[in-house]
């Protein structure tokens, strides 16, 4: 597993699934907060371009609730056969699930719209398990042996949910858990490609779901990245401070670099909006 973790760290940077900012220019997040890294796990599909192309295909086919799972599987299988990084990642996840004694009694695999499907549909196919395709509106269809079933109940069956990325588990709370419960089943396990370590695993545990991840966004990951020269010492120091206390680290940065906010307020439309949102919400105490 350690060798795999080394490879996964390299893949995260090679596909730009994980991007680290220069030490003097943190990223603006949609929330109006700032931070030192972005994570787009679905880029492990091979590249940003490949991942975005699949998302476009999903957006085109998801209106066809019955046909969507098969069409996504067809595209993902094509990529699995041709993209070395994606194939190795999927193969490692399959081995992890097969060899983990805590994951022996699941009967179904589920994945939620949209990015979960990059991983869940093909893993269910390889493991020869029925797959539950969950949509954001809580609709769900079952694919079993190539047949897609819309009218079904799980009758207490045990489900393993596969996700690309776990943050705070808000999608679980809003959609994935209720969708499976509505069908009479239970999600008892979750396997994530990446855990951002933002409380999602704790939420799952509080709902009797055992969480697993292939890698965590923590200091150990960034130390491996530093040792492999994917980031420099200044970037690592900024990330380490952020992981210890995101708000305090970014407050300190803004106070020490007042021009950063000034330039953001004079920047492009998206940056201006996020900077104004930051100030309006009072995310950082810049007056104390």
From TrEMBL:
Database matches in InterPro entries: PRTase-like
Protein name (Swiss-Prot/TrEMBL): Orotate phosphoribosyltransferase
Organism: Pseudobacteroides cellulosolvens ATCC 35603 = DSM 2933
């Amino acid at each position: 597993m350690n060798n795999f973790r080394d490879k996964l760290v390299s893949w995260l940077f090679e596909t730009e699934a994980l991007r680290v900012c220069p030490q003097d220019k943190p990223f603006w997040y949609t929330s109006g907060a700032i931070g030192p890294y972005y994570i787009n796990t679905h880029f492990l599909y091979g590249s940003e371009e490949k991942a975005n192309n699949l998302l476009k295909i999903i957006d085109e086919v998801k209106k066809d609730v019955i046909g969507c799972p098969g069409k996504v599987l067809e595209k993902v299988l094509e990529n699995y056969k041709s993209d070395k990084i994606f194939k190795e990642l999927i193969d490692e996840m399959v081995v992890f699930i097969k060899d983990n004694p805590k994951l022996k009694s699941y009967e179904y695999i589920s994945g939620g719209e949209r990015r979960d499907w990059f991983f869940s549909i093909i893993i269910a196919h390889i493991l020869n398990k029925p797959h539950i395709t969950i949509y954001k509106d809580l609709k769900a269809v079952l694919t079993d042996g190539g047949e897609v079933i819309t009218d079904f109940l799980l009758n207490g069956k045990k489900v393993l949910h596969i996700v690309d990325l776990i943050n705070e588990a808000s999608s679980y709370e809003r959609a994935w858990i209720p969708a499976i419960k509505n069908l009479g089943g239970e999600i008892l396990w979750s396997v994530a490609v990446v855990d951002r370590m933002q409380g999602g695993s704790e939420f799952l545990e509080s709902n009797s779901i055992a969480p697993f991840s292939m890698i965590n966004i923590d200091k150990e990951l960034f130390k491996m990245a530093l040792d492999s020269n994917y980031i420099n010492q200044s970037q690592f120091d900024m990330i380490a401070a952020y992981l210890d206390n995101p708000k305090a680290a970014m407050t300190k940065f803004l106070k020490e670099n007042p021009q950063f906010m000034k330039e953001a307020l004079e920047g492009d439309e998206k940056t201006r909006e996020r900077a104004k949102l930051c100030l309006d919400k009072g995310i950082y105490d810049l007056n104390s």
